[in-house]
What we know:
Helices cover 44% and strands 17% of the residues. The protein has 12 helices and 14 strands. The strands form 4 sheets. It has a 5-stranded parallel beta sheet, sandwiched between helices. α4 (107-120) links the parallel β3 (101-102) and β4 (124-126). α3 (82-94) runs parallel beside α4. The protein is globular. The protein starts with a helix and ends with a strand.
Amino acid sequence: xxxxxxxxxxxxxxxxxxxxxxxxxxxxxxxxxxxxxxxxxxxxxxxxxxxxxxxxxxxxxxxxxxxxxxxxxxxxxxxxxxxxxxxxxxxxxxxxxxxxxxxxxxxxxxxxxxxxxxxxxxxxxxxxxxxxxxxxxxxxxxxxxxxxxxxxxxxxxxxxxxxxxxxxxxxxxxxxxxxxxxxxxxxxxxxxxxxxxxxxxxxxxxxxxxxxxxxxxxxxxxxxxxxxxxxxxxxxxxxxxxxxxxxxxxxxxxxxxxxxxxxxxxxxxxxxxxxxxxxxxxxxxxxxxxxxxxxxxxxxxxxxxxxxxxxxxxxxxxxxxxxxxxxxxxxxxxxxxxxxxxxxxxxxxxxxxxxxxxxxxxxxxxxxxxxxxxxxxxxxxxx
Length: 383
């Protein structure tokens, strides 16, 4: 009896000693977090982002992990709500002790949680497009979506090429819409256009005929709609109902098939700046990103039986860049990841080629976008 007790006690002591010698973070796992709008109004952003991040996790682990350890992506659904995004971010930082976070999906939620990452000194790689996320530059905050300024510049370049002079803006009153509106208000006169009308709608509005009627009276040469689903789809349908034939640009915030589904026939002929991912098969063979984009498309469609979107691509880029930073730094410490991210140069992602610097935490240029048109219910490359 005494011998058995002694053996058991020795085994327990050995287990305690072994555990005591192990670091606080799980030795065989590196945890990164994700705050995404998997449900709610912005689910068309967050669901493909979540799907893609899990794809990256599995691909990394199948190839041997990162730094010899298993990668774990902990995803929290903020339900498209900024308060839940805040709670999720705090949980990832304080409870889960993640070394970096990808997301959120929306600009408003990204702006709502940024300060916690500056305070905790954990890197955040946002999937949203507002210029305010990275301008002014925060030490610990990066982004992977091409910026509002890039999208606005692409639209205005196309308008200039078509000889359009008088432009009208119709933007949503949330963080993303107002960020884009501010850029357009700056660039339209700066690039020699006339701002003929400037209307706003609410995120929950279901009819924008009043705003479109005012815009019609201003007789612009083109209308620029800035928002995410479902608002732009409602506007497209209202435009068709009012018999407005003025050319209509929508922004990069609707670059998924969901927009075409929501707008139906009213989407036909609408133009937008978008990442190359949604028209990857139409790119010239010489395009250096084509293989990457087609590979991602094939893997995503095989796994989820769903079309790809620009937003799923942001999920790919955010997690892949964090993994690249860890491999470059040969460390999974938050500060090492941050420092390595800031030095990434010429990294090919789905959104474009990333080059971060201390002064540029977005890493992309206007070249990240191509102009796309809706034609026969699908995306068609205009360039």
